[in-house]
Amino acid sequence: SIAMQAVRRTEVALGESVAVIGLGLLGLISTKMLQCSGARVIGFDIDEGRVRKAIELGIDEAIHNTVEKKKAVDQFTGRMGVDICLVAASSEDGDILQMATEITRKKGRIVILGLIPMNFDRNPFLKKELDIVASISYGPGRYDDRYEEKGFDYPYAYVRWTEKRNMEEYLRLLAEKKIDLSMIASEEFDLEHAVDAYDFLQNGSAESTGIFINYASDSSLQEKS
Predict the structure, then answer these.
(1) Which of 87, 175, 181, 185 has the fewest Cβ atoms within 10 angstroms?
(2) CB–CB of 87/96 below 8 Å?
(3) Residue 10 CB partners (closer than 8 Å, separation 6+)
(4) Residue 200 and residue 101: Cα distance in Å, rounded?
(5) Contact 39, 18 (CB under 8 A)
């Protein structure tokens, strides 16, 4: 639902082109959701393994050589620039936001999902009249004690997508196989070995974008109900 909220912040329309910078867990899930929305997606990551994984998942195009970013985007968009750039990378590299401003078309939109420095040359940003917006957490309702702790919902007619509704929609996409996590997170650990799972993420292959933690139970939800 964190990825879904970021996609909603893009306000993507059918047929638009989107660049996703950073093809980790959130970047890959965002890519699939963008494609579900009818967008054409080009992805960038400095890790070749993650680029290969994105290609296996069906991204329209993905490259790891960011030096060739302008050429790749020109070919992808007919030299117009992408309509939207979703920054899903978490890095201390101050050039990431600058890259986003360079590859986004005039009057396009940049959505910041990952944690990056907010330093960039303002001249290209101003000349293009770019919109830059932030996306944080799961959606409306997050960090609101009345919503999360006391059960006060937001009116459906005025806040269509809340934290809970985003999660419900995400589960629907999983159930209908619109998003398949098996290729994004292939390693599985039982709950009692959760510490080993996080050790794997920290010390394992750089290509590892996620893991499954198995909450196996002797009883099913149907039995409990």
Answers:
(1) 175
(2) yes
(3) 18, 34, 84, 86, 109, 111
(4) 35
(5) yes
